[in-house]
Design a protein that fits this description.
Blueprint lengths: L7 H4 L5 H14 L5 E2 L11 H12 L12 H15 L8 E4 L2 H12 L5 E6 L4 H8 L3 E6 L10 H7 L4 E7 L11 H12 L5 E5 L15 H4 L7 E6 L12 E4 L2 H12 L7 H12 L3 H22 L14 E2 L20 H12 L1 E2 L1 E2 L9 E4 L4 H17 L2
Parallel strand pairs: 1-10, 3-4, 3-5, 5-6, 6-7
Antiparallel strand pairs: 2-8, 7-8, 9-12, 11-12
Helix pairs in contact: 3-11, 4-11, 5-6, 5-10, 7-8, 12-14
């Protein structure tokens, strides 16, 4: 039998580092270790009962068959209403694309539009999957760094320097995974001024954490504050984070009809339609009560404040305070070169994360996975008791470095 060989396309990408950390933590837990995993990016709250009830009713109505490839009309209508109500954006249902999660939305957009040699500007630190989806689609990721000194945000001059005649897309994520940085309306307008000078550049704005902002932050999205970019912006969102529906796998986006039709063609030959039952649950999520979202965001803010305070009391760590999402992205630059009790020298954030897991059984994701070192990411989507214990272990680990 012939040996299996990966395709050249697959060889260009790597497995998800965040999923790898979670899997490693689970394996150690199965061995009896008392591991605290702070790697997964999903809310620890249950899906609201009214949304679950809507799914049950859909099953009982027999809504268990194939649907339109990229979403039922009822869900597309609910998405249009959401964009109008919350973002002041007008879309027709023919401008809406629904997929089995946010990741397939991005993948479909890249596959539908990129040719070899096309470049995609990705601000770093970035969500781990952006570059690899660009590579799978045959494009070339170009990284534009948002430094800690600028709040991990992309400056207009940095964006300008990254754009070339080959640039096809800018992927913008606010609030950000992994840093939690969120762009103000003024900051988006400044980036928009750059983009207006480069009409060949399309914008994919990943707004998945829109409803998880803190300290009375006023959320805006780029097509809202720079309407001149409306005709080349794909505004993406989903029900995973705000509605605690990660496993339901519903992401959506709205944009120009030619792009949406092209994305529909990709989906028709890959996943086909998103789960019919999950789509009806998403209709209820978008149309039903929304008050619990602010209540849960307030809980996340308390957790953020706890984690930021405790990490800033850890020797050699500096942790900025993020505006949103449920992550912190602290630096360990003052710990590089230190020696762990095992004898290993901490030469990188990957070394730090590995030694922390082995010595204190706390799983975090190293910063190199997100394109900016030396940092690490913590997801604080878990209880205050668990976070207090985890941060105490991190403090103990840092104190043990010599």
């Amino acid at each position: 039998m012939a040996a299996f060989s990966e395709s050249d396309t697959l060889k260009r990408v790597k497995p998800s580092p965040t999923l790898a950390v979670t899997a490693k933590a689970r394996e150690l837990a199965r061995q009896g270790k008392k591991v605290i995993s702070l790697g997964a990016g999903e809310p620890d709250f249950d899906t609201p009962e009214n949304i679950c009830d809507a799914a049950v009713k859909a099953i009982k109505r027999g809504e268990t068959r194939y649907t339109d490839v990229d979403g039922i009309p009822e869900l597309k209508a609910a998405i249009c209403e959401k964009f109008k109500r919350e973002n002041g954006l007008d879309y027709k249902t023919t401008q809406v694309h629904v997929a089995p999660g946010g990741k397939p939305v991005i993948y479909n957009a890249m596959m539908a539009s990129l040719n070899p040699g096309d470049e995609v500007v990705i601000p770093a630190p970035y969500w781990v999957s952006y570059p690899d989806m660009v590579l799978l689609a045959g494009g070339t990721p170009v990284f534009a760094v948002g430094e800690m000194s600028t709040g991990f945000k992309l400056l207009p001059e940095t964006l300008e320097a990254a754009i070339t005649p080959k640039t096809k897309w800018l992927i913008l994520n606010s609030p950000s995974n992994p840093s939690g940085a969120a762009y103000t309306g003024a900051e988006l307008k400044a980036l928009g001024e750059v983009l207006k000078r480069h009409p060949q550049v399309w914008i994919l704005t990943d707004d998945m954490y829109e409803h998880l902002t803190f300290d009375n932050f006023e959320y805006t999205t780029i097509a809202q504050v720079v309407p001149e970019l409306y005709d080349r912006t794909l505004t993406m969102n989903g029900v995973s984070k705000a509605y605690s529906m990660t496993g339901w796998r519903i992401g959506y986006a709205a944009g120009p009809e030619p792009l949406i039709k092209a994305m529909q063609k990709i989906e028709s030959q890959s996943t086909s339609n998103p789960c019919s039952i999950a789509q009806w649950a998403a209709v209820e999520a978008l149309n039903g009560p929304q008050d619990f979202i602010a209540e849960r965001a307030a809980i996340f803010q308390k957790r953020r404040d706890l984690v930021v305070a405790m990490l800033n009391n850890a020797k050699g760590i500096h942790c900025p305070t993020p505006e949103g999402a449920f992550y912190v992205y602290p630096t360990i630059k003052d710990l590089i070169g230190k020696q762990a009790p095992s004898g290993k020298i901490i030469n990188s954030d990957e070394d730090f994360a590995g030694e922390l897991l082995q010595q204190e059984e706390v799983a975090v994701v190293h910063g190199a996975a997100f394109g900016l070192s030396p940092f690490f990411r913590i997801s604080y989507a878990t209880s205050e008791a668990v976070l207090t214990e985890a941060c105490s272990r991190i403090q103990r680990f840092c104190a043990s470095l010599k």
